[in-house]
């Protein structure tokens, strides 16, 4: 998934086609729900990637505590 502003020119030219997902995406508090975050490790960590990863990790741990399985 990409932001609409990034792909708007490609949609307008016909190179990409917008897909409508039904049912729409939603947020859940289901404890059986898994979140996978995959990113390429680099020698120099991009600050915005680190902030995003740390934010998601912290929210998952806040919600699920000891049940949260976080692999690095």
Automatic annotation (TrEMBL):
Protein name from the UniProt record: LysR substrate-binding domain-containing protein
Organism this protein belongs to: Thalassomonas viridans
Classification lineage: Bacteria, Pseudomonadati, Pseudomonadota, Gammaproteobacteria, Alteromonadales
Gene3D superfamilies: 3.40.190.290
